[in-house]
Amino acid sequence: MRRTLLTCGLFFLAAIAPARAANVPPELYQILPALTLTSGATAAPITLTNHLRDPDVPGSAVQITVRMAGTTSTINLALFDATAPLTVANFKNYITSGRFAANFFHRSVPGFIIQTGGYRFVAANTFDVVPTFPAVQNEFGASNLRGTIAMAKIGGNPNSATSGWFINLANNSANLDAQNGGFTVFGRVLGTGMTVADQIAAYPRYDTTPTFPWDELPLTAASLSQQYFIESDAALISPIAYQVSIDDPALVTVALTDGVLQLTGSASTAGQTTVRLTTTDLEGGTIVSAFAVTVLSSNPLIAWRQSNFATTAETGSSANLADPDSDGIPNLLEYALGLSPTVPNTTGLPALQASAGNLTFTYKRAVASGLTYAVQTTTNLADSASWSTTGVDQGTPAGDGTTTASISYASGVRFLRLQVSLTP
After folding, report:
1. CA-CA distances (angstroms) from residue 220 to 141, 193, 197, 204, 388?
2. Is residue 365 a contact partner of residue 398, using CB atoms and an 8 Å limit?
3. What CA–CA distance (Å, rounded) separates 67 from 104?
4. pLDDT (tens digit, 0 to 9) for every residue of the chain, 424 residues total?
5. Under a CB-based contact definition with an 8 Å cutoff, are residues 161 and 120 in contact?
C-alpha cells in the first residue's frame, strides 16, 4: 500500500543520538602491444579490461548516489561476485530493473548499521515498499566488519533476504556472523565512502510508528517532508576509468567508448607516435601505460621502409641507394627483388643461365606497385648507351612471382642486366 507522508507540521520526537585496507592501484596484467596501421585505416578495437584491472575490485562495482540536506555525495561499492554470486546477482537485478532508484535510508543505528533498499519514493512525498524478487539463498562467508555491506533478512529465516541491505558502521562480526545463519556480506565500501556513511549515521533518528513503519528513521530535519529524507540511487559503474592521449594527435585519432579503444591512422601522414593511457580506480589510484603506434604510408615503398627502419634518414627517399646490411644490394633493389634490407643476402643476385645461342635471367618480383622491371642487353659493357631491350623477351610473372627473361643470339658475346625504375 502506498502511503503519503505528512508534509506540514514538524515531527517533534526525541532523537536517538577497523580502518579500510590501503588502496592497491590498477595493474597492467596483459601488455598493450605496439600497433601498426595502414594509412587511413582503423585498427581492431582494444577492450581495455583485457589488459588493465583494479585488484581491489575483482568483480562488479556500484555507485550509490546519496542526497541529504541539499547536497549530493557518493558511496562506491566493490561487490564480491566470486564469493557471493547469488546475492550479487540479486542486488544487480534490483539495480538494472530500476527498483533501487529513489530509495531512502529508513534505519540508522549509530555504531552499528545504516540500512536502505526497503522503501522508495514513487511521487512527491509518496512512498511505497520496493517491489521484491524471490528471496535469495543465504551465502554467509565473509565477516561483517566495518565498511562491508550485507543483506537484511527476517529473523529466524536465513534465506529470506530480498531488497534490504545495510552498511556495517562497526566490526559487527560477533553479532551478525553468529545469528540467523550469518548475514551475507557481498561487498565493501571503497575510498571515502565510509565518511558519507558516518555522516548519515550522525543525523538524528526518529520513531514514526505507528503511522509509518520506521522507528529509527534518519532525517536531516524534524519533518516528514521528502526533502529531509536521505535518499539513495544505485547504479552499476566501471571499476576503472581511462584517459588517453596521443603524442602526435595529427598522426592518430582515438575513440574511447565504454572501455573500448579504437585508433585510426592519418590518411595523409605517416610515422610513429606513442599512445599514453592513464587508468584510475574508484579510490584515486592510477597507472600510466604506453604503447607505440606506427602509421604506414599509402605509398608501398615508404610503408616498406617504415616496416624495416626506424629513423627519418633510413625511411626517407635517400635510403633508396643505402645498404644498411652491407650485402652490396641497395635498398631499392632489395625492395624490388623481395629481399630483406636488414639481413645480408648470402645467396647473391639471380644469375644468368647460358646455353648455345640463348641467355635466360630469372628473378622474383616484389608484390609492390610503382616499380617497372626491364631486362636489357648489350654486347659492349664499356658503352653505357648501348644497353637496350631490343630482342629481349621480358617474360611474364609466374604464379610464384618469378619472371624469366631471355634472349636468343647467333654468335658473339651478350650481356644481360635488370633495370628497376621507381614511378614517383
Report:
1. 35, 19, 14, 7, 99
2. no
3. 9
4. 566 654 433 333 433 334 456 789 999 999 999 999 988 999 999 999 999 999 999 999 999 999 999 999 999 999 999 999 999 999 999 999 999 999 999 999 999 999 999 999 999 999 999 999 999 999 999 999 999 999 999 999 999 999 999 999 999 999 999 999 999 999 999 999 999 999 999 999 999 999 999 999 999 999 999 999 999 999 999 999 999 999 999 999 999 999 999 999 999 888 899 999 999 999 999 999 999 999 988 877 777 777 777 654 455 566 778 888 888 888 888 888 888 888 888 776 676 777 777 888 888 887 666 788 888 888 888 888 999 998 889 888 888 878 888 888 777 777 888 888 877 5
5. no
User: What is the C-alpha to C-alpha distance for residues 240 and 409, in angstroms, rounded to an integer?
Assistant: 77
**Using DSSP, how many helices (H) and how many strands (E) does the chain show?**
6, 29
Rounded to whole angstroms, how far apart are CA atoms 1 and 316?
A: 79
Neighbours of 421 (CB within 10 A): 11
Contacts of 208 (CB under 8 A, 6+ apart): 11, 13, 214, 215, 217, 224
Judge contact between 201 and 110, C-beta under 8 A.
yes
**What are the grid coordinates assigned to 342, written together?**
636488414
Cα 29 from Cα 364, distance rounded (Å) = 44
Provide the grid cell at 57: 575490485
Going by the DSSP 8-state scheme, the letter that residue 51 receives in this structure is T
3-state DSSP assignment of residue 301: helix
Residue spans per domain, the chain = 3-21+58-237, 31-55+239-298, 300-336, 352-422
Q: Give the list of residues 6+ apart from residue 365 with CB closer than 8 angstroms, or none.
A: 336, 337, 338, 371, 373, 397, 401, 402, 403
CATH 2.60.40.10 fits 31-55+239-298, yes or no: yes
Question: How far is residue 91's CA from residue 234's CA, in Å, rounded to a whole number?
Answer: 10
160 grid coordinates: 529470506
Report the top-level CATH class of 3-21+58-237. mainly beta
Tell me how far apart the alpha carbons of residues 303 and 367 are, in angstroms, rounded to a whole number.
Answer: 13
What is the C-alpha radius of gyration for the chain, rounded to an integer number of angstroms?
Answer: 37
DSSP β-bridge partners for residue 421: 372
Cell of 290: 604506453
Whether omega before 210 lies within 30 degrees of 0, making that bond cis, reads yes
